[in-house]
Every structure is written in structure tokens, then in C-alpha cells.
Amino acid sequence: MHPIEHSSSSSSSAAAAGRVLVIDDHPQLRTMLCTALEAADFEVVASSSLARAGAWLERAWPAVIILDLQRAGSQGLHAVRAVRARPVLDQIPLVFLAPDLGDGLRWRAVQAGADCVMPKPLSLVELQERVSRLIRGGRPRLRLIAGRTRAAHRLAG
Asked: What's the pTM?
């Protein structure tokens, strides 16, 4: 099997909407996510694991990463940390999908570096909207830090 299991054609409207990397270890769910995102004019690249997407990530960068692993707990959090540990990827917004957000998983995912945590089952329309907002606005955490830095400079100046 190839490292990248799905890649949409690069039409001008898809490129304008942004490139999304979908990492999902369930083939049918991965296909569903890709179809929904392509319907919203995103260019989509998909893989079954972060390790398989690694070679692609060496030469291209998505505007948003969507991470959906069946065992979202420790495996998913490990993958979020692995994304954030790569300097090139640390500024890319990351959406974490999980079937069960119990036991503080939402908070642990945010602490690990997720920018958006969505429970499954999820609304595909809401996912499309969240991805659009993240592409337009970037990582919320980075905007907050930048705002605090600007405010500190105004106070010091």
C-alpha cells in the first residue's frame, strides 16, 4: 500500500480553498472525510497513519491536519505530540476527532497541541466550517500568543 492512500486532483478551486491532510486508520471513515472535504472544495491528501504520511510531509505542507484514530486515547495523543514535535508542522492547525471524549480526553488533546477537538459522530458540515475557519485564521493558540505579545509591546512602549 502506498503511503498516501488518497489525493484529490489539484483544481484551481481546490487549491484556493486549501490543502487538508486527513489521517484516519479506518478506510471507510477516511473516504467519507475526504469526500466531505472535497465537496467543500478542499484539496485532500489522506493516509492511514502519521508514519505513512511522513514522506509526503517532507515535501509538502497542508493548511490543516485532521487526525482521527480509532484508539484516540493514547495513540491519538501520541500522534498529536508527534505532529507538534516537527518544527515545520508546529504552526499548522490540527483537528482531533475522537469517538469518546470522556476521562478528560478533550483537555489532554488540547494540551498535546490539538487546536480543535470534535466528538464522533460528527457533523460533516461543521467539520467543513471548522476547517475553513482554521485555514483563514490559523492556529488559535498562535493568534492568542501574538495578541499578548503585541499588547505587551504597547504597554512597554
From this structure: 0.80
